[in-house]
Automatic annotation (TrEMBL):
This is SnoaL-like polyketide cyclase. Gene3D superfamilies: 3.10.450.50. GO terms for biological process: polyketide metabolic process.
Amino acid sequence: MTFVQVIDYETTRFDEMNALIDRYAEQTSGKRTVTHTMIGKDRDSQTHYVDLVEFPSYEEAMKNSQLPETDRMFQEMVALCEGMPKFMNLDVVRDEYLNKLVVNRMFEECILKGDFAVLDECLAMNYKDHDIMESEGQSDGRDGMRQTITMWRDAFDFSFDQTRQIAEGDCVTTLWNWKGTQKGEFMGVAPTGKEVTMSGCTTFRLENGSIAEGWWYYDAPSLMRQMGMMPE
């Protein structure tokens, strides 16, 4: 579960604080477990700042806190503050932006580039798939989805053009246009070298940072007509 530490402090020496953060980032390069940081300045109080520091998990945050550079940085930070900074520790229970990142990795790195290590990182082990061209359960689980992606990649050189993406709650819906050139057998059709296109959308439901369920809707009849599998 993603973990965020919130650091609330007052300082009249923010330029020095900024330089301290830069030095810390340089000194801990390759060692720190921080995935994202953000600093906000209070519009109503020119000396009031809030840092948001994101980690993959609470456990990774604890590893980061044990670095000797982290302890030194904290001591120097306190010296630049007016009073002791306040800390808040948060387990992230909802984050649509992170959900989009997971979904886009699935499309761009796994489906398009064939990096199946990414599939294991993005897809839950008990993933449930719903595809209008497949029998129920055919692409369930990591192995099922790996086989389906391999089937499409073996049959086509293809690209996805994502036209719009909407995240709400635990779901991310992506509208896309797909274009492929048939290079291998697909559903009994021998390679034709034809370029074919279709449009569709995919909705992924995420759970604890992983894709737990997916629904694929696309213009299968148009694809089949272009491939000569059914009459115009």
